[in-house]
Design goal:
Distance between the termini: 68 Å
Shape: globular
Radius of gyration: 21 Å
Strand order of the largest sheet: 2-3-6-7-8-9-10
CATH class of one domain: Alpha Beta
Helix content: 25-40%
CATH architecture of one domain: Alpha-Beta Barrel
């Protein structure tokens, strides 16, 4: 049973303090009482879109266990509000909180397509898959308004450059026309995140995301259009969705996914505090059990920063998760393979047209 002060439509239930900030904010009871007596709203819970102007847009990913070499994020912060999101901590570098600020202050990079084009035309650039997005969802609600992701996809298509997509939003189907053009040259791979088959679980974990039914339908439509799909069954959270691994794998496979990946949840940085506050307000009856099982996967702590282990976990609970995933691959993905994307075409199109010789 949720607590009375639960903020509907948001994942985080408060703004954690920014570790880099000199000052911290506190929402005091006397201030809330003043607002009540004055008939004022202490917090309107609205999303703000804030333009920023980076000098570059393609990021080199140095982490050895993320599964990508380069990423591009049209937006910082994410209105989807997934409570477990590892990207929350990055919002602190912009001077905001990893909590509610991450979901309500969305930084918009309108220059991203032009910066991407300059990168792809650079003499020093050699084609390698660039992933939209390695940090926050490129098809979050802001994309409806700004269409930056679509503009970037047009650049990738113009220069015949391989691109990956990670999203949990059915809005990706809006760009089916460009995706099919990219797929014709084996230049696109889409990763669809499916964390649970339960709508109730989805609503509390990922409050502003596409429904599970829509996500499975998205996998099916992309697959029917010969666009390769990998399903991200991530993160696996003990006591919340760990019992769903086999059913999740079967559902995404039945809808055409060629492979799936998963991670064991870890609550790094400020996310541990945000998640703990959330689960005690959202699932108070099993909060302690879930937190203890997460800690059991990471040597007794909610966070683990060790490369090669941090996303896999260790111990008996983590091993059970890995065993179930192995069984799922044997049952539902035995004869399926996700293709390697084509890097051979870009050099011919680097100057905007094919070379004659």
């Amino acid at each position: 049973m949720k607590s009375n002060n639960y903020i509907k439509g948001r994942g985080a239930q408060h703004n954690s303090n920014n570790r880099f900030a000199q000052f911290s904010n506190e929402l005091r009871d006397d201030f809330l009482e003043f607002c009540r007596l004055e008939g004022e709203t202490a917090d309107n819970n609205k999303t703000q879109y804030l333009p920023i102007f980076p000098k570059s847009i393609v990021n080199k990913v140095d982490s050895p266990d993320v599964g990508m070499s380069f990423s591009l994020n049209p937006y910082q912060g994410c209105e989807h509000g997934c409570i477990y999101c590892y990207a929350r901590n990055s919002h602190e570098y912009w001077g905001y909180s990893a909590g509610l600020d991450f979901e309500r202050k969305i930084l918009v990079k309108k220059d991203a397509p032009a910066l991407l084009e300059a990168k792809l035309k650079s003499n020093n650039w050699k084609a390698a898959t660039i992933v939209l997005s390695g940090n926050t969802d490129c098809y979050q609600p802001a994309e409806n308004q700004f269409k930056i992701t679509r503009a970037c996809l047009e650049v990738f298509q113009r220069y015949r450059h391989p691109v990956g997509i990670i999203t949990k939003n059915a809005l990706v189907l809006r760009d089916l026309d460009i995706l099919t053009q990219l797929a014709a040259d084996n230049l696109i791979g889409v990763n669809i995140s499916v964390t649970s088959l339960s709508e109730e679980t989805r609503r509390i974990l990922e409050p502003r995301t596409t429904t599970i039914k829509k996500r499975l339908e998205t996998i099916r439509i992309l697959s029917e259009n010969n666009i390769p799909v990998n399903a991200m069954l991530a993160p696996i959270i003990p006591g919340i969705n760990s019992h769903e691994i086999l059913n999740l794998a079967q559902a995404v496979s039945d809808n055409g996914a060629l492979s799936f990946g998963f991670t064991v949840v870890r609550l790094n940085g400020a996310i541990g505090q945000i998640f703990e506050d959330w689960i005690k307000k959202t699932l108070p009856d099993r909060a302690n059990k879930v937190l203890q099982q997460i800690a059991d996967c990471h040597g007794g702590a909610l966070n683990d920063s060790r490369f090669g282990i941090r996303n896999k976990g260790e111990g008996k609970i983590a091993q059970q998760i890995h065993d179930m995933a192995h069984l799922a691959r044997q049952k539902y993905f035995k004869d399926k393979t996700f293709p390697k994307l084509n890097t051979s075409l870009h050099e011919q199109y680097k100057l905007g047209q094919m070379k004659l010789f």
